[in-house]
Amino acid sequence: MNLVCVVGYTIAAGGLALELRLNDAQIGLAGGVYFFAYSYSQLFLGILSTRVPIRLLIVASAWAAASGAWVMAIADSFPQLVLARFLFGIGFCTVFVGVIEVVSMVYSRCFPFILNFSQSCANGVGALIGVFAFMPWISRLSQLFGVSTVVLIVISLLMFLLLSSRPGEAALSWQEVPSWAAMGRSLVLCISSPRFWVGTLYFVGLFTCFLALEDLWNICFQVDIFNATSGLAASMNSMLVSGLTLGGLIIRLWAARSGLAAPSRSFSALA
Questions:
Q1: Dist. CA 198–CA 261, nearest whole Å
Q2: Distance CA 70, CA 144 (A)
Q3: I need a surface site. Which of 103, 173, 248, 249 has the fewest CB within 10 A?
């Protein structure tokens, strides 16, 4: 659903800017608010995950995402658009960590395979949204995000029921909760590692591409500048998530045989 909402917003960004009469600064702010909320929510998620069961955090974030989808469906002003993007950032902050946590807990023996399979499925759905952007229920913002609201609520209920409490998932007792000093030492150790900065640089590039795709290389831009049709422009924008899907499938098979190190280095160099 994260990619459905991201690709859906990409498809509708140009038309939404015209409808709400947004200038370039407002369009950029709407895109930046999402990543601002997303990044800082992940920081607080890391702190809360030492004190609150991950299941409850995932369910709560899904409700926040559903709220964002509902606000987006009815948005008729710039403040509502910013609020929706902010709620999306909070709601989807558990996407990366949540998947890793659940997969490692349930499928620890085939972790690389299941993790990449999950990511490939998600990217595939996002690519399909882009390919079929010509369909009315996708191209119309209110319909797409109205359906997304219902789906996210259903998903949150299913996750609450299916992600049953496990010994490893239960909240730590107060004696086991790491102190602020211990967390500070861990943070310093993390920041001092070259791997941290390499990974950070990689994700900076990744999210910059997403931000540019949403706010700059949107459908209206391609139609106005390159005289592309709306269908072709939507298909072009879906190539990013299509590449993510194909890459995820290749990495899944590769990592199952050699581990994650070699494919991660190779695909990072390709990016």
A1: 14
A2: 10
A3: 173
How many helices (H) and strands (E) are present in the chain, helices listed first? 14, 0
List helix spans (H) across the chain.
2-20, 24-48, 54-74, 78-91, 95-106, 111-131, 136-139, 141-162, 180-191, 194-215, 219-226, 230-237, 239-258, 261-270
| Cα atoms found within 13 Å of the Cα of residue 100, Cβ hemisphere only | 5
Q: From residue 11, how far is each of 17, 21, 139, 145, 269 by CA, in Å?
A: 11, 17, 7, 12, 29
Unique residue bearing structure tokens 């190190």: 261
Q: Which two tokens stand for residue 27?
A: 């369009």
Q: Which amino acid is residue 159, in one-letter code?
A: M
Return the H-helix or E-strand segment holding 227: none
Taking the model in full, what pTM does it have?
A: 0.72
Compute the distance between CA of residue 86 and CA of residue 8 in angstroms, rounded to an integer. Answer: 16
How many residues make up the chain in this entry? 271
Domain boundaries, the chain: 2-266
CA distance 57 to 48: 8
Query: Would you place residue 70 in the very low, low, confident or very high pLDDT band (cuts 50, 70, 90)?
Result: very high
Under a CB-based contact definition with an 8 Å cutoff, are residues 144 and 1 in contact?
A: no
Q: Is residue 31 within 8 Å of residue 78, measured between CB atoms?
A: no
Tokens coding 176: 């086991």
